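FIELD: query
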Amino acid sequence: MKQMVAIPKNVMDLLAAPDAVKVIATVSADGQPHVIAAGTIGAVDPNTMMIGKVLTKVSSDNIKSGKKVAFLVTKGLESYSINAVLKDIQSSGPVYDAVNQKLAGMHLHASELMFFDVTAVFNQGANPEAGKQIA
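FIELD: result
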């Protein structure tokens, strides 16, 4: 298994920006790629990414079967990809409650939260450093 890495502060800041676009890429058991934007994507801490299961049946099924994912967070010319592997699935607890409290204002509910260990972070922005691994 790949070693965990920490998400750099500038990437954490972008993940926390409400106007940043956040995407997750998964692959099905038969090799079909699947990519969606999701508002519940975020970082719990510098080593842990998260997504809530809200209207994400295909992605959730792919995650459970394949474990590995790639996240993309982007705003303007700044963009980063984050590789990660499934660590835990929770359907209760303080983080679960906090996510669902935020979602309630949109009349949505996460049936579970999926947590991931971060294994690599890459600069994917429109700049000469595009493609460079930064963590």
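FIELD: remark
The chain has three helices and seven strands.
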